[in-house]
Amino acid sequence: MRLATLALLACGAITAQISPRVAAGYRTIQETTLRANLAFLSSDALQGRLSLQPGDDAAIQWIASEFAKAGLKPASDGSFLQPVPLIEYRNDRAQSFISLSRAGAEKQWKFPEAYGTFPKDVNVKGDVVFAGFGITAAELGYDDYKGIDVTGKIVLIFDHEPQETDPKSIFNGTGNTRYATTRVKVQNAQAHGAIGVLIVAEPNRKHPSNQERMARIGGSITRTVPLPSQSLADDSLHTPAAVISEAIARELFANAGITPAEAQTNIDRELATQSRILPDTNIMIHLQNLFSHTGTTYNVAGLLEGSDPQLSQDTLIISAHHDHDGANGKDIWHGADDNGSGTVGVVELAHAFAANPQKPKRSILFVVFAAEERGLLGAFYMTAHPLRPLAGTRAMINFDMIGRNETESEQTKGLIDIPADTTNRLNLIGGTYSPEYRRIVEQENSQVGLILDDRFDHESALNVFFRSDQFPFVLHDIPAFWWFTGFHPDYHHTTDTFDLINYAKMAKILRLAYLTAFRIGDEAVTPRFVANPRGE
Fold it and tell me: Tell me: the pLDDT tens digits for 125-146?
């Protein structure tokens, strides 16, 4: 009896309240296992797990073997591995450019004033149409493409969203919605017939541009030899895009009768279209690569079948990503927190659910995605090639960086307030799209005792909402949360090592996720997705 009591106390939670239905699996989640697994996954031997490199291939095989040991069913045609075909390439900045033809003269810009990446060499030319923020949001009654035809044209758009400093904005107040990210905007331009896209930081912004923000990270962002770019080989997005400076944008607006800043002011004031043809403005986007080749990486997926004959057709996803930023000579980007912590968390929960004699009524798909660091590629691939029907996917728990205490870094300095003590704090991202999901987490947390934080749902400077693998599933109206312990100075640096992890907090997060998944897996009614968070 005494040994059993000690085992319960070691779990670090209010174990007397844990239901007997879930208790056996709950008790298996232990700090010692997490530490041992993460020490391996972030070791020098795996060389930073760069996508398409041997170290990441070793991580893939390890995850698959752990899923097999847990007794999960292979989820991809009899295999734990779902192939993700990629194109890897590197842009030739010396040969790539944007050029303007106007009044019989031509002007050209190269990096850093103008730049883009694309998996194949492209050379597109067309007249330019300004399309505001590039957003079409029917449920919000907002459309930057209303009244304009961009077929065969190059579209110029602002980054981010209108009214992002207004708490009453239809675009989730001061937070981001699904429409704020570049990929969604370029896809929208493509759907309207555009042949190319130019993106400029919104001129009246109160925060650094995306490019300025990324430069503040340092680490792998500013490495001497840039990381290669990667794209899905069968990507539905096939329209080239380039980022331009504000000075270039002002020049493109020279004949428009309005400045970019005035256009944004008008949009922010009235949410009325300012879109227009930019007279005598013809642009060429020329992107050239130093190399381009194909390769295959893998999503790792295992299925725990639900116990109810009908509800087992539904799916919950518990996910993370296995890749990181590799090595450069003796320098290794270990990626212990990002995202070794999430990967070993998924593995730990697979074993926990397998160890529990009773299973949830709904099925759980455990997934560790490929190539997240290269653009959420594995997650986008799975939404395009789902292993279980997306229509029956009821919720997603995505772990990305669940191992550290949040502390100020150059990336976050002056952009978001960080509590003085984050040793017991978990950030939940995506709650505005499913308040019911968040309520379930809060209720189950009464048994675990974490401090839950939604700060990142109410800020737009850091682009956090669309920086992890839950985001492609949000685009398919699936309640999907990113579970995240926050940024720190070791983020994307070689110093992100396993000895700095807060294993006690990590174990508590996994226990909360276990209870949350069991609850959603059992209840008759699952969390709703709210397409318009401001309309509730």
Answer: 999 999 999 999 999 999 999 9
Q: How far is CA 516 from the centre of its chain?
A: 21
Residue 515: beta bridge partners? Answer: none
- From 408, 443, 442, 440, select the one nearest 422 (Cα to Cα): 408
Contacts of 495 (CB under 8 A, 6+ apart): 489
Whether the CB-CB separation of 475 and 383 falls below 8 Å is answered with: yes
Compute the CA torsion angle 368, 445, 460, 416 (nearest 10 deg): -110
What does the alpha-carbon distance between residue 343 and residue 34 come to, in Å, rounded to a whole number? 10
Contact 378, 369 (CB under 8 A): yes
Residue 214 parent element (H or E): helix 210-217
Report whether 188 contacts 135 (CB < 8 A).
Answer: yes
Q: Residues, the chain, total? A: 536
What pLDDT is attached to residue 535?
54
Token look-up 């570049």 returns 182
Q: Are strands 114-115 and 241-244 parallel, antiparallel or unpaired?
A: antiparallel
CA–CA dist 124, 101 (Å, integer)? 13
Q: How many helices (H) and strands (E) does the chain have?
A: 13, 22
Q: Which secondary-structure segment (H or E) carries 445?
A: none
- Domain ranges within the chain, ordered by starting residue: 11-88+292-535, 93-287
For residues 416 and 462, the answer to whether their CB atoms sit within 8 Å is yes
Cα–Cα distance measured from residue 442 to residue 504, given in angstroms and rounded to the nearest whole number:
19
Residues 6+ apart with CB under 8 A from 414: none
Reported as type and span, the H/E element at residue 275 is: none
Residues of the chain with pLDDT under 70: 1-16, 535-536
Class of domain 93-287: alpha beta
Is 345 in contact with 48 (CB distance < 8 Å)?
A: no
Could you give the C-alpha distances from 173 to 142, 163, 207, 440, 459, in angstroms and in order?
Answer: 15, 8, 16, 24, 9
Contacts of 438 (CB under 8 A, 6+ apart): 428, 431, 454, 481
**What CATH class does 11-88+292-535 carry?**
alpha beta
- Cα gap 390→396, rounded to integer Å: 11
Q: Starting from the edge strand earliest in sequence, which strands make up the sheet with 196-200, in order? A: 105-109, 97-102, 276-287, 122-130, 154-158, 196-200, 241-244, 114-115
Task: Please say whether the beta carbons of 136 and 143 come within 8 A.
Answer: yes
| Owner of token pair 């952009």 | 415
Prediction pTM value: 0.95
What is the Cα–Cα distance from 131 to 71, expressed in whole angstroms?
Answer: 52
Per-residue confidence (pLDDT) for residue 9, from 0 to 100: 36
* Cβ-contact 430, 457 below 8 angstroms: yes
Taking a C-beta distance cutoff of 8 angstroms, is the pair 492, 325 a contact? yes
